[in-house]
């Protein structure tokens, strides 16, 4: 993993100083700010960049999104909405997505005038309409559609299968008329988020193409209907293992521009709600090696922190890049184990073997000794807040800002 010298220095000084004897996250959101600036420069003028808050809800990430000029925030709960407001976003900069929005959440949304509520089912459409009716309000909505095609190679798919997200494309065609007839809902367009963690630009462009076709189809069928807003969701991937297969924003932007022009959609707004792509490389998880032992011929590297602090690798069964910084600590006893050019298991202290790994695929390690610092990269997205922090009642890691 490429580790900038200033990050490495900072980690070392924290690990030897105020964070000694602890595990922690380090956040430096300069990469996130740079990515937002780049996207704003490259994307067609009709595209708005929103930050998908769940990727990292820490105030520093929200502040960065705001300062870097993100158009707004995508939330999936009232709690997330309150964090966005606390960070200085306004209610009309908030998109509310996600299945199973509670009545209280919908009331909060309507009373505060959120930008759009993204309808995930027919029930939700009716529930929201009733809430609006009682309050004499009308709410702008997008309808989320579960597309009936598959995106290959994505880490997580929201398409081509039974899904709790959105309304199946085929059902959508039948029920759109009913939704349009609800007097307190103002249909603004479509939301189709097909997959997360996509590295192949063409796969996400295929999603755009299909949504454009669907927009055209329904606009042909309902005379007064126009999809003023088309939301492509998130999904720009991160090349976690640094294979060189980065998602190409340049190609995506150029091809999307062509598509907008060829469909004559220059008068529409397009939404990207990006989480992982913006946040992942702005954070690191840092722990240290407490023990190394040999078990049935394989080394077990046991760290102070484990999946309770950083659950994502185990939850998705993927490795993140690892860096070990030697600390040359005095030996505890002469014959203690170390690692040299070996394929090892790396996990934490939880009394739970298979579910407590920091590198679930195992890892080839050049050198490691007890007391060394272990850094797990790309931990800025789906890190701290996605972890089961209270399991085994270890201390929570601090989140340190660079
Ligand atoms: C999680 C989520 C996102 C962000 O997804 P990434 O893959 O991190 O970009 C965007 N939109 C919705 C509706 C989401 O649930």
Please outline what is shown here:
The chain is α/β, with parallel strands linked by helices and 402 residues long. Helices cover 31% and strands 24% of the residues. α5 crosses α6 and α8 packs parallel to α9.
Task: Give a verbal description of the structure.
There is one protein chain. Helix 8 packs parallel to helix 9 (249-263). The strands form three sheets. Strands 1, 13, 14, 15, 16, 17, 18 and 19 form an eight-stranded mixed β-sheet that branches. The mean pLDDT is 96. This protein is elongated. The chain is an alpha/beta fold. Helix content is 31%, strand content 24%. It starts with a helix and ends with a strand. Bound molecules: pyridoxal-5'-phosphate.
Distance between the termini: 19 Å
Order of H and E elements: HEHEHEHEHEHEEEHEEHEHEHEEHEEEEE
Radius of gyration: 23 Å
Helix/strand structural class: alpha/beta
User: Which ligands appear in the coordinates?
Assistant: pyridoxal-5'-phosphate
General shape: elongated
Q: Estimate the helix proportion, in percent.
A: 25-40%
Number of strands: 19
Stretches where pLDDT is under 50 for at least 5 consecutive residues are none
User: How much beta, percentage-wise?
Assistant: 15-25%
Largest sheet: 8 strands, mixed
Q: Residue-averaged pLDDT, rounded?
A: 96
**Total count of helical runs of at least 4 residues:** 11
